[in-house]
Amino acid sequence: MNNSIKKYLKEETKRQKEHFELIASENFVNDDILELQGSILTNKYAEGYPGKRYYGGCEYVDKIEQLAIDNAKKLFSAEHANVQPHSGSQANAAAYLAFLNPGDKILGMSLNSGGHLTHGYHISFSGIYYKSFTYEVSEKNLMLDYSEILEVAKKIKPKLIIAGASSYSREIDFFRFRKICDEVNAYLMVDMAHIAGLVAAKIHSSPVPYADVITSTTHKTLRGPRSGLILTKEKYRDKVDKAVFPGTQGGPLMHVIAAKAQAFIDAQKSSFVEYQKQVVNNSSAMADEFMKSNCFVTTNGTDNHLFLVDVKKSFGLTGKFVENALEKINITLNKNGLPFDVERPFITSGIRIGTPAMTTKGFTEEEFRQVARIIIDVCRNFNSKKILNKSKNNILKLLKKKE
Ligand code: DSN
Predict the structure, then answer these.
(1) Is 221 among the domain residues?
(2) Closest atom, ligand 1, to C-alpha of 88
(3) What's the CA dihedral at 28, 82, 57, 47 to 10 degrees?
(4) Among all residues, which ones are annotated catalytic?
(5) Which among 37, 100, 184, 193 would be 20 to 30 A from 288, CA to CA?
(6) How far is the CA of 25 from the centre of ligand 1 (A)?
(7) How far apart are CA 187 and CA 258, in angstroms?
(8) Neighbouring C-beta atoms of residue 294, cutoff 10 Å
């Protein structure tokens, strides 16, 4: 291995070990997933689908991909699964290609309200190739207001509505979205990338009965390899499969598909359900600790694996400042725009906190509450070297407990 790459890998390994990881979209995979992603399956070209490939020698990768498909369908009770998307964004690109023509109208949650770039943001392909419109969370309580969304949908008349978010901490009512889509004759696409693990564990209601097409990543709460997934109804199977290959991708990454198969199998175990329950309990305990200390948590709490803290209102700081200050005491998280935020996306008034990764490491409510208190202490005393040193030592001590 090249010495520089080897050195950086070692340094990143150390960083991951010595930081309390609170980025809501990250997780730690198990050794099986790592082994499969690093396996000789990476050598194989397999354009096409099991039994219908454009290359020879696919007898074993066919079996692996079929295992992934069967287990994804079983895990989510879906009629059809396409396990080839390389990522969540690729899955979204393929879903649009399957259901839309260029220039068609789409309606998604705005980036500031919690949506994703690929839900129609003007500099993403989704906002360039399609005519995109947004709905917001309600100004009253910063939650989705389905009557307001219906009004927007009636005005816009989109061909497809996107439900799903990257930074929304409340349960999403997919049945209400279905009703809105039926009223305006739109397709319903659900991007469940963030909550896929919760849906698999039946802690968040499932979009499967209601959505025409569901996209996801497999590496966030689902705790599989870094990749994507599409679920759909049998009647849309052909157009979705064609939109993935050859529509938006070439050869599938068979080493990653093998790791996805393993992740879908792992997610059917009772230990996975227990893990997801702990993720949500930790998130809710941590949000509660912030609120007990008079900090502003968006929507006053959380139903899922993440929540947002308004650091401007709580401490008079920006998200960028807090992200940097916490990095110095070995806490990793990201600045995050808040609904109706007046700060630019690179500055922001908020931070996003997620519990999936450190729950995987075995931390529970009391430890997450302790980390919340450390964050609050640092935000209130960012000039105190003494507090910063003490906080960093406490984080390192906590991490040592689960080594
Ligand atoms: N939206 C990013 C996140 O949630 O971190 C991933 O695409």
Answers:
(1) yes
(2) 7
(3) -110
(4) 45, 47, 191, 217, 220, 226
(5) 193
(6) 6
(7) 31
(8) 8
| Side chain identity, residue 47 | E
Query: How many A from CA of 57 to the centre of ligand 1?
Result: 36
Helix (H) or strand (E) holding 324: helix 319-327
- Which residues, 6+ apart, have CB-to-CB distance to 205 below 8 Å? 171, 173, 174, 175, 199
Q: In this prediction, what percent of the chain has a pLDDT beyond 70?
A: 100
In a shared domain, residues 48 and 185: yes
Q: What is the 3-state secondary structure (H, E, C) of 56-80?
A: CCCHHHHHHHHHHHHHHHHHHCCCE
> What CATH number is associated with residue 324?
3.90.1150.10
**Tens digit of each residue's pLDDT (9 = 90 or more) over 3-39:** 999 999 999 999 999 999 999 999 999 999 999 999 9
C-alpha distance across the termini of the chain, in Å: 27
Instruction: Tell me the pLDDT tens digit for each residue of 255-271.
Output: 999 999 999 999 999 99
Which domain-ending residue is among 266, 300, 324? 266
Structure tokens at 275: 């893990």
Q: How many domains does the chain have?
A: 2
Q: Is 232 exposed, middle or buried (0-12, 13-18, 19+ CB in 10 A)?
A: buried
Ligand 1: residues within 6 Å at CB?
25, 88, 116, 166
Cα 219 to ligand 1 centroid, rounded to whole Å = 11
pLDDT given for residue 210 in this prediction: 98
One domain, residues 210 and 237 = yes
- Residue with the nearest Cα to atom 4 of ligand 1? 166
Q: Whose CA is nearest to atom 3 of ligand 1?
A: 25
pLDDT at 180 over 90: yes
Q: How many CA atoms lie within 13 A of 282 on its CB side?
A: 26
pTM of full prediction above 0.90: yes
Considering only CA atoms, give the Rg of the chain.
21
Using an 8 Å Cβ cutoff, are 331 and 20 in contact?
yes
Q: Point out the ligand 1 atom lying closest to the alpha carbon of residue 26.
A: 5
What is the distance of C-alpha 115 from the center of its chain? 11
CA distance 261 to 283: 28
Query: Which of 266, 296, 321 finishes a domain?
Result: 266
**Euclidean distance between CA atoms 186 and 179, whole angstroms:** 10
Q: Helices 254-266 and 59-76, interaxial angle, to 10°? A: 40
